[in-house]
Specification:
- The protein has 129 residues and is an alpha+beta fold.
- It has a single domain (4-121), classed as Glutaredoxin (3-Layer(aba) Sandwich), CATH 3.40.30.
- It has 3 helices and 5 strands; from the N terminus they run βαβββααβ.
- It has a 5-stranded mixed beta sheet.
- A hairpin with a 6-residue loop joins strand 3 (64-67) and strand 4.
């Protein structure tokens, strides 16, 4: 199985949450909480989780990227809730990791992955067509 990476924006806030100035300094942002919860969620073997400070999807926070090397499609998901969506994200990552090309049939994806997709990015190609 090729390496699968879940990249999570740790600076993300959920859409519609308090403005930046109202965020208590001692509380982790929702993106950081999502990262922490997924880190403890028992992702499949071969899945790496990493944190980044910005995915430029601020209006769709919390956001993550699901990728798996040059031969797989990659996905960007947003509007994720660190309290409600962890189990669905884990199920979606498991389904993605089980593919060779990153294409999970639409009906087999968790609802959060069906409805909250921001973008689908094609695999990298060594040749131009």
């Amino acid at each position: 199985m090729a390496q699968v990476t879940v990249t999570i924006c740790t600076t993300c806030r959920r859409s519609g949450t308090t403005p930046p100035d109202a965020q208590p300094a001692d509380q982790p942002r929702p993106g950081a909480r999502l990262h922490a919860r997924l880190s403890q969620a028992g992702l499949p073997e071969g899945v790496k989780i990493r944190a980044v400070e910005c995915l430029s999807a601020c209006s769709r926070g919390c956001s993550l990227i699901l990728s798996g090397g040059q031969a797989r499609w990659s996905y960007i998901y947003g509007d994720l809730d660190p309290e409600m969506h962890v189990d669905d994200i884990v199920a979606g990552v498991q389904a993605y990791a089980a593919t060779s090309d990153g294409l999970v049939p639409w009906r087999e994806r968790p609802t959060v992955f069906r409805k909250q997709s921001i973008a689908r990015i094609p695999p990298q190609s060594d040749t131009e067509e």
